[in-house]
Amino acid sequence: MIILVEDIQRLQTSLNQIRENSATQIRLLEEQLNQKQEVISRLEARLDAQRDYDEMKRELVNLKASAASTLTTNTDSPSSSINGVDAKDMKDNNTITSGNSKRPGTKKPTQPHNIKIYNTIL
Predict the structure, then answer these.
(1) Helices in the chain by DSSP H: which ranges?
(2) Which residues, in sequence order, are bridge partners of residue 86?
(3) Burial class (CB in 10 A: 0-12, 13-18, 19+), 112
(4) Is the pLDDT at 118 greater than 50, yes or no?
(5) What is the C-alpha separation between 58 and 49, in angstroms, rounded?
(6) Cα 95 to Cα 20, 99, 107, 113, 119, distances in angstroms
(7) Measuring CA to CA, how many Å separate 38 from each of 34, 51, 69?
(8) Would you tell me the crossing angle of helices 113-121 and 87-101 to the nearest 10 degrees?
(9) Model confidence band, residue 38 (pLDDT cutoffs 50, 70, 90)
(10) pLDDT for 74
(11) Which CA distances in Å does 121 have to 64, 79, 83, 91, 111?
(12) Cα–Cα distance between 12 and 10 in angstroms, integer?
């Protein structure tokens, strides 16, 4: 009977050690799981940022292509240039003219001949 009591005590001690070891292993595994989840969250955030970057990059490429096609269209269209004077040049000249006319003591520059013809066509 004493042998049985000793066996029971030894088995209970063994069981307690196994429980402690199991609890320690579970805690370590949970910590590893939490660390890996944090890494996954950071990587997902980086992926989202990369997707945003890629989307912005695509939009920028599209805007550049759109701007280039707009410039090409404006350059090729006959209404953008009249008698060799671009619409942009006419706008710049009108801006300069209107800007100079506000200063006292300055003469208003004369319009180029092509702009006078353009004004009479309208």
Answers:
(1) 2-76, 87-101, 113-121
(2) 81
(3) middle
(4) no
(5) 14
(6) 86, 6, 15, 17, 16
(7) 6, 20, 46
(8) 100
(9) very high
(10) 64
(11) 35, 12, 12, 17, 15
(12) 5
